[in-house]
């Protein structure tokens, strides 16, 4: 995570200020529950809420931590400075640091997931708009980077929309995976704290209580969370790769938006680099690299060891901040992508009708020409196009053996692009619904 | 995937025989749909079913492929040899090889997922049985590998159960991810085939039609599938790590089952190595390593390139066969795991009561002793235990300052293990339901 | 590792037959050393060599293993069947299974490395030949997929040569990393065997004795080995990516070789897919995925656990067989790559001279035109080319403000391609030496 | 990279200040070379050195970049503000931004490697000191976590020393890999700049000229660099894992150093957690995760795309800063590790002599007892030890069948620990040399 690839809202989730605020809320809600159970005085629980609107002094907490060498104790000491030592006495009673730390981490991940879901909604909207806009913009479909059959630019946007919609579901599942909290004590037995406290705190924070925890919340949840992010990132790379291809000089079917003022482009007007999508390709790798360590974090020793912690302190912010930035950047790219329908047509026609050779072949066989003969007929005309730059339809019309089977009108019919796009509506209905 | 770590049912899914069988079914169902649409003669469609019970000759197909250099054409040629050239003429009409290949791959993954789900059910059953069996078997909980507070062996099994139940859900989601088929032509436009064919074939194969495909089914689905397998594998490593720790000489709270006849163990009776769980640790790495390439496969060029194919030819079988084997092995390990409750108690009592120091500390403060004094009292008695091998309870009872606050009965009460296990039923109800 | 992507020599290294042969050699050499030390009778050591030319019966060994559940014992039993029980009595004395297994694994990796080095030599030769052949074949250099400045096809081959030469060195280093053997007993203390045995066996096998082993050879060596393979694979992907780009329809500067007989290409003569290099892209992922598990294998418990073994049984053959196949395939691709110099020129001239705009700009400033003015002059002519399809040189010659600074001859000089290639010889000398 | 796991010297390498300083040096040296070639005036080149001792104003450069959207231009503008527009006119002439950026990145990596090498020297020194200190400290060697045969703590340190020495060589190789610079222009042809400039700049910066570059330095170099870091990190995990095992409650053969003042430990004196080595385990994952993206960075499109850049902006600092911190932390852990020789002996003697069963078995067969009988004899006495807590040596001495073959003195001899350590000096000489 570096500022260059960060957006403020996501960064804020991972700030010390936010972290202490969540710690505070956990402690305060826990006090309420403890008071309700009669474990601590109600007045003490209420007193904790005095800090409700206080901004915690991060420097002061750091200062205390330098002495105590313990972050939660440092925070509790600072809290006592705010609400008074007498009232603070009952805060954190029966709890373990991990109760606070692990529940907080999940709150942060839930909030991060909410931002990512909103990002995804924005991307879906952009993709849908562009899909509808270019529903009928014909371009050549390519397999292996080689021309195959016609398709439309709208279908390209539509398939990215479908892919991102699946990613939205994966993000929702991922959010659910880590939307749990645990306040269950040193080894998860609730030895010193009633399960009711956990229930209350989780309810207030919008989490489900972790059915069974140890000192920590089980890390398979987090592995699944980061794995989902890795899939989303890979889809971003997929879209980015398409655009990078479309923008390359010889293809030029689309370009990332260039503001008029952007320098350097007009002396070499062809030199507009798809730097945003190249950047997205790299960002995808950064998100993806967090998946394996998140999986390595699952196997902890007995009721916990702390090997996962340094990993999460990094990949928690890194993966979410980077993915948020990448989704926003991709949305902007899609939104403003400059499409060149004329170049699409020009590219498709590069081989003067050869793209229709398959249909002609099929038509000949349907007219009773043997497959071998049909192939030979198509081939000899195709080779004239390929080698001598002839026009495929003209050659076919001039070939007596061909016209013996197909009339000129029938030949022309095989060159009708509408044939390839007649199911576009059906596909759009599948992707976007009939509305 | 090597025979040593393979089980036959899963291996069979990936055999050429199975593959050709699925190809055949796709082609035959497609013919039915084409006949229904009037595209091909009904009689021809029916004739294809003549091969219904024929075992395809894999060697023959390979032989043809050496000439044609194309696997699908080789298969179709062989099929024609069975049902007759005349009838075979309409098979595969309007279809693209990828229609068959990609749909088949997903059928295989669905079947693999079904086996994995059944494996998981077996594992869940074993974990539940052992959890109930050892619900009250006390052992020391450990954080950082260091004794913390008492827990029970049942809770250990129960948390693995909860984790594997989540993994079951992940496998179900993963199954849904790849339970789609596509028969949509060279670039996904249905140019030469009606969407009704896809609908029919998918219904027959238990798949959903892929809403929008290109030449291929989008690979984000497969990335999500393999990512789920990677999470499951990481959980297997988690359980394996626990058992390896329990079996190490100094701990010896459990052992993998050793048959009486297993050689070499009796001259060195302590030398029973947890080789199965060590093996599972390695297998987990093998499954996990497939996640990143599956994600790298997502970004294909335009409507498809074939870079994903060599990857999938390997990781498809490798990850599913290895995970199947690992789940089955783990189930067997859990089923037969030899538990040593006496050693658990002996380990816990290693420090002659020190494990209860926290409760004594708390009790003192609750009796009005200041936190500093309480700490000092506990500490001076704890150090006698630690340094001189004294018994903690005896020391406390002999300490006048302690007994001024706590009666001998109250001290004894703090050494009651029941305190730590009183919420076990609650946790079990969360994990297994109340039944 | 699947047959489709395998070559026999590398596969043979990993056959049971080869493995048993190496086991045998280790045992036989160890007997010689033991006899030399007087630990076992010389006659017994000599007798072991009776099996020198015997082909071991893998099925028989497997059969014995099913009873003994121990592979090394099964082999030794079979060996005794060949050389006689009496003589076999002293075989393996003082040794531990791992002495044999680990040393054998390293022998296999060394042999694999030797094949990879030979593969690399073949690739280097092909790259050099093509580099020299196309030293002066002008093509446009591209950054971000966008035309930049002219370069030559020879430079492209030359840089791949330089990259692969570095990879050759990495392979040599990797070979050295794992060219060690260990015969040091159960925990590496030589308790039951003299270090002289290790020294003798290693010398005979072409290995260095591992300076300090435990039960196993330390796995950082293997991690480094597989990491080197991962780098080589990534370079293969790099070359493959270049070729895939060159072959895409709109670029068509090169094509993978198509044999005349290869079917299906002539009715759609443009439809020649770069399937070999796409395949190489996937194979690179397969090799690369072995790097992380090899690194996870480094941390073993105490003097050894066996978690690494299942990983290595897979990635040992998989990574080496796949990389061997990939290197050979890439060599073939390079060897036969069809280059289209005319298309290269046509692509470069796509923008009618704009590629030289930078040089014109520079020339103007060198003639004293201010940078702002020079930029304005170049820009207004460039835009005519870009928007109206004019010819850049013609426009410049017709622009009075330009010709005030630059004569027609001077303008023409800026369009000289030789300017861009004048240092090619220097670079070639750096890469290939002056010879 | 987060402050918690960072050390200032390594962080400084990646500061904007350092980066601009290296940019400046490259530009200034390039001017000298250009002046020498007569391309720019000598006075202008000399003038650039006016900024030699100036601290660049990072905020000012950022401010300019917000306008120009180009970091190198922003820097050059700021440089012009310092040395004067007139003199600055010739700076960067004929160069491409990447000439500066890529060469700078390598300078940073070289400096990072130098720090890592110094770190490694510190670690090696600590390991050697502890190895010599505990050369003869007997402990049980363990395979599979199960007691095997005796070894010494010194051998453990020595093998880590040997492993880290290999890592030192890998770091040196890695340093060499990236110690190159390139000043070769937009596509690497030196079109606008003489190779002599590159030669001069590289010499001044301690780099070798990259034999053939494109717009960028080839990324296989960086992949190899990060792979080496990943291997080093895995070895750190290896050492950390050993210590974590040694510190676990039931083993307690060593502990990370605890300062007297460290709170919380004395009321639960057994509760000293190996948090530093657990942390190192996590840090190893963080370094290792950078390997795959570095390898994915190798395949760039044609003469360059910029997908690698965002990856490197993160993993460059992240991997080096984390590894530096980890090496320093590990050195401190090793330096101060508290070793408990008495516990080592107690652990070894846990099974009252059974650890010597193998030697007794061997002795019996050497005395002519058949292997079957010898096994039976050892077994029946071993089982008494295992099941009834008897003492192995006593039982053997009391077994008439045993004493028929071995005298009491001979039996006692088999329990001599010196047998296991008699080759320690040989091994130490291999690792540390004879000095």
From TrEMBL, chains A, B, C, D:
Pfam families: ADSL_C (PF10397), Lyase_1 (PF00206). Pathway: Purine metabolism; IMP biosynthesis via de novo pathway; 5-amino-1-(5-phospho-D-ribosyl)imidazole-4-carboxamide from 5-amino-1-(5-phospho-D-ribosyl)imidazole-4-carboxylate: step 2/2; Purine metabolism; AMP biosynthesis via de novo pathway; AMP from IMP: step 2/2. GO terms for biological process: 'de novo' AMP biosynthetic process; 'de novo' IMP biosynthetic process. Its EC number is 4.3.2.2. It catalyses: (2S)-2-[5-amino-1-(5-phospho-beta-D-ribosyl)imidazole-4-carboxamido]succinate = 5-amino-1-(5-phospho-beta-D-ribosyl)imidazole-4-carboxamide + fumarate; N(6)-(1,2-dicarboxyethyl)-AMP = fumarate + AMP. It comes from the Bacteria. Residues 352-432 form the Adenylosuccinate lyase C-terminal domain. Keywords: Lyase, Purine biosynthesis. GO terms for molecular function: (S)-2-(5-amino-1-(5-phospho-D-ribosyl)imidazole-4-carboxamido) succinate lyase (fumarate-forming) activity; N6-(1,2-dicarboxyethyl)AMP AMP-lyase (fumarate-forming) activity. This is Adenylosuccinate lyase. It comes from Halovulum marinum.
